[in-house]
């Protein structure tokens, strides 16, 4: 699959940069630093930084690894934020997940206090990364995009509503809000950050932002479906977690078949948003990648 080759060809420079931005565990506080490294290098797919790379390379009209070097602070910031959100999501007071990516969750491997601090430290590190963008105007713009994505208008807002909705009957509108904010906000930020660095015109930025939101929502619906019918090997954790936590999902509100059709429509809409943009091959592959996860 083309997107897998794309990920593989860019993973080397990304992993090297992630390692460089993280302090060594020999520094102080060593336990928190170890927890940060454990979580960042626990086997993530790096979807957000890769979407960021793919958007930028589509906009400039060619693929060139050397051109990506100046983008590494932003790519790393996206991955650090995403990892922080997973650490905090897994905490006993939130989703109470003992496993993540087939390994012990951060709070299980270390302890709850260390996990909280590791997540907090990754959030602050992500902002620090953006200060390394050479053009100060671009740095300020990128900080604005990323902080909005993680704020109460983005990930934190979605997580807050998700927590408040546990053990309650909610409608599909509320569930859609949760998914758009929890998953879609950071994917949206990935494409908006690429647009900001490219200085894309507003209409194109809006189109790509909508593409990312659709992909994010489709991805989360597929996750909901897999949580109901998937396996540990696919999920990297025990299935049925949402049911155990009495959380609403698309399958629980719509049924499996309608949830699948909703995801399929979102993926079609995503494709239609970018089908006429030149050099869109990798972006189309992102659509296909989510589609192939549908059971």
Task: Write a structural description.
With 295 residues, the protein is an all-alpha fold. It has a single domain, classed as Farnesyl Diphosphate Synthase (Orthogonal Bundle), CATH 1.10.600.10. The protein is 73% helix and 1% strand. It contains 16 helices and two strands. The chain has helices at residues 2-21, 30-40, 47-60, 65-68, 72-89, 106-109, 112-130, 136-150, 155-165, 172-198, 202-229, 232-235, 241-244, 250-254, 256-274, 281-293; strands at residues 99-100, 103-104. The protein has a two-stranded antiparallel ribbon with strand order 1-2. Helix 3 (47-60) runs antiparallel to helix 5, helix 5 (72-89) runs antiparallel to helix 7 (112-130) and helix 5 runs antiparallel to helix 10 (172-198).
Which structural class best describes the helix and strand composition? mainly alpha
Q: Poorly predicted ranges (pLDDT <50, ≥5 residues)? A: none
Look up the CATH topology: Farnesyl Diphosphate Synthase
- The spatial strand order of the largest sheet comes to 1-2
Brief synopsis:
The chain contains 16 helices and 2 strands.
Which secondary structure elements does this structure contain, and how are they paired or packed?
Blueprint: H1 2-21, H2 30-40, H3 47-60, H4 65-68, H5 72-89, E1 99-100, E2 103-104, H6 106-109, H7 112-130, H8 136-150, H9 155-165, H10 172-198, H11 202-229, H12 232-235, H13 241-244, H14 250-254, H15 256-274, H16 281-293
Antiparallel strand pairs: 1-2
Helix pairs in contact: 1-5, 2-7, 3-5, 3-10, 3-16, 5-7, 5-10, 8-10, 9-10, 10-11, 11-15, 11-16, 15-16
């Amino acid at each position: 699959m083309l997107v897998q080759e794309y990920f593989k060809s860019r993973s080397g420079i990304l992993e090297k940069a992630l390692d460089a931005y993280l302090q060594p565990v020999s520094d102080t506080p060593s336990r928190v630093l170890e927890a940060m490294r454990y979580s960042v290098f626990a086997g993530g797919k790096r979807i957000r930084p890769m979407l960021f790379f793919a958007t930028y390379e589509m906009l400039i009209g060619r693929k060139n690894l050397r051109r990506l070097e100046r983008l590494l602070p932003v790519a790393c910031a996206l991955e650090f934020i995403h990892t922080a959100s997973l650490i905090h999501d897994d905490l006993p007071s939130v989703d109470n997940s003992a496993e993540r990516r087939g390994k012990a969750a951060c709070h299980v491997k270390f302890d709850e206090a260390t996990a909280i601090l590791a997540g907090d430290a990754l959030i602050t590190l992500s902002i620090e990364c953006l200060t390394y963008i050479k053009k100060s105007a671009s740095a300020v713009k990128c900080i604005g995009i990323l902080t909005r994505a993680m704020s109460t208008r983005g990930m934190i807002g979605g997580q807050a509503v998700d927590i408040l909705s546990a053990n309650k009957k909610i409608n599909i509108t509320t569930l859609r809000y949760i998914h758009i904010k929890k998953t879609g906000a950071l994917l949206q930020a990935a494409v908006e950050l690429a647009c900001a660095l490219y200085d894309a015109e507003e209409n194109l930025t809006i189109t790509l932002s909508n593409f990312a939101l659709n992909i994010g929502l489709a991805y989360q619906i597929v996750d909901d479906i897999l949580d109901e019918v998937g396996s540990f090997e696919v999920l990297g954790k025990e299935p049925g977690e949402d049911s155990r936590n009495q959380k609403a999902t698309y399958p629980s509100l719509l049924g499996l078949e309608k949830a699948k059709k909703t995801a399929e429509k979102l993926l079609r809409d995503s494709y239609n948003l970018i089908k006429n943009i030149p050099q869109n091959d990798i972006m189309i592959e992102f659509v296909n990648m989510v589609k192939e996860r549908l059971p």
